[in-house]
Each structure stands twice: as C-alpha cells, then as structure tokens.
Design brief:
2 copies of one chain form a homodimer. With 339 residues, chain A is α+β, with helices and mostly antiparallel strands. Chain A has 2 domains: 4-145, 60s Ribosomal Protein L30, Chain: A (2-Layer Sandwich); 160-327, Alpha-Beta Complex (Phosphoribosyl-aminoimidazole Synthetase, Chain A, domain 2). Chain A is 32% helix and 26% strand. In chain A, a hairpin with a 6-residue loop joins strand 1 and strand 2 (32-35). In chain A, helix 2 (62-79) runs parallel beside helix 6 (205-214). The two termini of chain A are 34 Å apart. At the A-B interface, helix 1, strand 2, strand 3, helix 2 and strand 4 of A face helix 1, strand 2, strand 3, helix 2 and strand 4 of B.
Chain lengths: 339, 339
C-alpha cells in the first residue's frame, strides 16, 4: 500500500454514487450523517477481528475474510430483527507481511459483494497501521420499527425454541483447518462445506429482519459462542430456564468428519461458536407462521425445545434425552479464558 | 485480566442506570437500540488507535490514554457542529505485557471522566485479544438538527478563516516525548503543557456543537493532520482557495521548547497533527457572533485568513507574509507515507 489516502480513495470510489434516502453524507467528512425518522429505531453493532486470534491469513482466502468481517455484524443486526443499512470499517494494516494491493482488492471484493447483496452502504471508517498484525473492526448500523427489536431478554415460559440451519459445521471447519485442511473452491463435499461454514458464514439477514418486522419472536440471539451458551444468555437475561430436546437438535452432517460417535458430535455442535445461525424463542401460536416464513426464505428452521419457568437462582439450560432431563454442562468461547 | 466477561461486566456496571430519552437499549444485546426523531440527524465517527503507532504505553499515563481515545472522536462530532451522545469502544487487548487490572481501571477512569463531562453514554463495543499490541477503536454517535451539520465542503469565497486555541503544542509534546521527556502531573510549565497537549487533548465539544446549533459557520474540520493540510481539505472539498495571514496565526508558546526561530516554529505549527482545534470558515457578518460565542465558551478564537476563488485546477492554500502571497508547501501525517 502506498498511502492511506490512496486506500481511502479506492474505497470512496467503490461507494460513490450510491443513492439512499436516509444517507445525508457518507465517507469524506469528520463524521457520516444519517437522517432520522420518528417511529423508527437505529441499531448499532461492532465486531473486532484480529489476525492470529480471530482468523489466520495462512488459511483464509482474502475474499472470504472481507465477507466474514461484515457477516458477523450483519448477523448481529439480524438477531435483533433489524434491517442492516450502513457500515463502517476500521482497518489496522500491518507494516510487515501480507498487505499487497492484491490482498486488499480481494478483501474489499468479498466485503462489498456481501454489502451489495443486502444494499448496505459503507459510510465511514478509519485506517491505521499496526506494528505486527492485521486488525479489522466492523460496524453495522441498521433499522427497526419503534419497539420492534427482538431482544435476548423477552423469552417467556412456554415459548418454543427454534434454531436456523444445522449446528456444528463451523467448529468442525476450524478443527480441520488446524489439522491442515485447506480451501479448494473447485472441490465440493463435506470437508469444503465445513471450511466454508467457518470461513465464509452466511448471516440470516432477510429471515432475521422479517421476524422483527412481523413480530414473530419473543427473544433472539445469533449463535456466536455456542448454542448452549447463547441459549444460556437468553435464559439469564429473560429470567427463565430452557429444555433442549436432544433428538431434535439439527447437528451438521459435517460432524462425521471428526467423529462417528453421535454423543461427541452433539457436544461438539452445542459448543460450536461462530455459527451465525439464529436462535429464537416464540409462542406456540407463532410456529406455523415462523415455519412458513422460513420456507419462503429458504431457511431450515427447527424447533429444538422449550422455555420453562426458572427453577432456581441461576438460569439453567437442561437437556432432555431418553425421558430424562438433566442440567447441561456447556462450554463456549471466551477470548480470555486462557490468559 | 481474567475474562472477557468480567471486563464487560465491569464496563456494564459503570454505565448501569443511566437514563436517556433516546437510548432504548445499551450494552448487553446483539446491538444497541437508539430512538430516532424526525427533524434530527445522526452523526457517526470512528477512530482507531494502535499501540506503538498512535501511542506508546512507555510515556502515556493510562488515564490519559482513556481520555484521548474518546477525545479524538468527540472532536470529530464537534467538527460537524454536532452534539455527541453515545459511544462504543472496541478493545484489542494484548496477551503479553501491560494489561494489568490497574492499567484498565485507569484507562476506563480517563474514558468515563471525559464521557461524563459531556453526558455521553457507552452503548456497546467488542473485546478481543491481540497477539502483540493494544488496539482501541473508538466510535461516537452524535446528533444535529436536520441539515444543520457543518461540512468541509461548504466554504465560500469571501469567508473568513478561524481557528480555536493555539497551534503547534501537540507536535512539540510528541517531539519532547521522543526526546525522553515524561509527564509529571505535579509540575507546571511549558514542557508539561506540551506533553499534555499531545497526550490529553481537550476537544472543543461545546463550542463546536453551538456553532452547529446557531449555524455560524459554512465549513468546519478539526485539526488532526496539521492546520495547513486540513485547510487544504476544506479547499479541495469546497472548490476554493485559501490565504493564511502569517502574522495572524496563533502559534503555541510551547514552540520555544524546540526552536527560537519564528519561521521554524511557524512551519512546525502548521504541520502539527492531533491538535484537535476547530478550523472553520464563516461569512464576515458572523464574526461578531462567533467571537462572542467563543468568549462565552472560554475558547480562544482567531481569524487567520480568508477563503478566495479557486485560481487553478487544484485547491491551493496560500501564505501572505510581508506583503507577498505564495503557495504554501505543507506536509501532514500519512500513516503509510513510510511504507
């Protein structure tokens, strides 16, 4: 990279001429300007991805890195039942190593392809160099109608629990990458699916925003730290317990890559982070509409359990299996657990 | 640091119970929720600070680091004539080194002291570890009335040019730090002033927001890359030229620390970045009101030149000295100029 300004100009070119009713001013001033509207709410989320910690360049195609950086934030807005509209992007570009022009072109290609898919406009950001490693902070701003956001804290005893997609492929993809597997876009099959699930997740943008618009869920979160742990968060914030039906959970086919023991596959799936599937609770009477919506959006939606009254002081996620109900021991991902 | 969650909980405690009419939901869900209002506009800015590149822990008191991280973004909102309302904070915490609990407590102390001064509420953020160095991304969201933001692009030939404060102390502070000078909060004098100017800048929050509210400027920017270069940006975006009167520019007294040659002091001041003073252009008839407002805000405001018609293809900043007008050769700070 020759210059910060050059990079900024290249990004400016990419978003120039975008017309949007609520965007008063995008990139190019001290701050971006967005029009507000009574009856609407702004949603803001930010996700920080750091080389060597959150991704490795060694096995991440640059286009997929650009995609994922945005995908994780889109997923947050979807999990609020909102519609993503604008993004900001902070780049910490390492002075050493892999920052060729080609690398950045591919990162932006991935980023803007996903942004374009959902009509998102990049309205700002910042660039700094870093001494060692690449770091990217992704900010997405969305909208929902007033009072329409789906929070984590509104699950009600009696709600059914649903999850989109199949669970576990992301953790398996990561494991395979660590074992030396690499992306080959010409190949198909379970291995490449798993790598793709981890490196190039598809956020449930349309389905999530429609759930919000149609008010079909009480609580929603995206699976970023593992289904069990994220469901635990809904329980904690809502003051409820949850029971998951072991046999209902849609475990990803890719689990066969690492184990033929269904119990191990299940545990692995329940603690698989970065799935970016939506986990939601809804009243029984919404099930029909939810299933219809999922079908219309070509999203697999599975009922996996129910919300129950809180049985003791701390919120508990229980597992129902072979007629027995036991507290579930779950583990998720904590960046500092190893410090 | 024992855990990401612990750190998040500590931050949550710090902002718990804050009441704000437009804040629907702060920290703790997939995204923050802000109420919108017709007739108002949202301003968004982001600033990335990286250890060893943008700051060195070796000479930065942690409290001042927390202060500065927020100050740079507040300054951006002020430069739009907006009122800062909310912030988000991304922390990349290095696995090695200086991340003691005490260090973070002091960083937050500085951050929240400045936030509290202007009634700002932290509504979100993200935390990741980094392999080597600390990295902090600061996001601030503000408001202005519809159409009320002061852009860089609206300077008009005939406008007068004003700047707040005195220019140059930040670059001198940085130079002194590099030469081995260190902060001593018990000491007073030019040296400590210069260090403070660089390490703990005071953004012009109230003055900037009132300029926007009272519609007193045509164009505004904060001095972050050097007065000459930032004025060049206004010229470029507005399609005008500018003349600076050499003898009107308020050069910081601290320049005496590095040179007794007024010419060198002036050049140094004109390219001093991270000043976070406001540079604005306004019609002649606004001068009285501007000066009165500055006085009310206890801000030094100086007229330093005028905006003129564009004389050739590229916008030019000229310098008027001893009856002569010459194009100014300015240099500013480009993070990648050395790559």
């Amino acid at each position: 990279m020759k210059s910060e300004f050059e990079l900024i100009n290249r990004i400016r070119d990419q978003v120039a001429g975008r017309i949007d009713l609520d965007l008063v001013l995008g990139i190019g001033d001290d701050a971006a300007i967005l029009r507000e509207q009574t009856g609407r709410e702004t949603l803001v989320t930010v996700d920080f991805l750091v080389e060597e910690i959150d991704f490795k360049l060694e096995y991440t195609p640059p286009r997929w890195l650009g995609h994922k950086v945005l995908a994780v934030s889109l997923s947050d807005i979807a999990a609020m039942g909102g519609r993503p509209r604008y993004s900001l992007l902070t780049l910490g570009i390492s002075k050493t190593g892999l920052n060729s022009d080609k690398f950045w072109e591919e990162v932006f290609e991935g980023y803007f392809a996903l942004a374009g898919k959902y009509g998102l406009i990049l309205i700002g950001g910042d660039i700094s160099s870093t001494p060692d490693r690449l770091a990217i902070d992704s900010i997405v701003i969305g909208h929902c109608r007033q009072g329409g956001a789906i929070r984590r804290s509104r699950a009600i005893a009696g709600d059914e629990i649903f999850v989109t997609g199949r669970i576990g492929a992301s953790a398996i993809g990561l494991k395979m990458l660590e074992m030396g597997a690499r992306v080959n876009e010409k190949e198909a099959g379970l291995l490449q699916n798993a790598l793709r699930a981890h490196l190039r997740p598809e956020p449930r943008v349309i389905f999530g925003s429609l759930i919000g618009e149609l008010d079909l869920a009480h609580a929603m979160i995206d699976v970023s730290d593992g289904l069990a742990q994220d469901l635990g968060r809904i329980c904690e914030e809502s003051g409820v317990d949850a029971i998951i039906d072991r046999h209902l959970v849609p475990v990803a086919d890719e689990s066969i890559l690492v184990t033929d023991d269904p119990e191990r596959a299940f545990s692995f799936a329940m603690s698989s982070g970065e799935e970016f599937e939506l986990l939601l609770t809804a009243s029984r009477k919404s099930e029909g509409k939810l299933m219809k919506l999922a079908e219309d959006c070509h999203v697999l939606l599975t009922r996996i359990g129910e919300i129950t009254k809180k049985s003791n002081d701390s919120a508990t996620v229980m597992l129902r299996q072979d007629g027995q109900v036991k507290p579930m021991l779950f583990s998720g991902y904590d960046h500092f657990i190893n410090l």
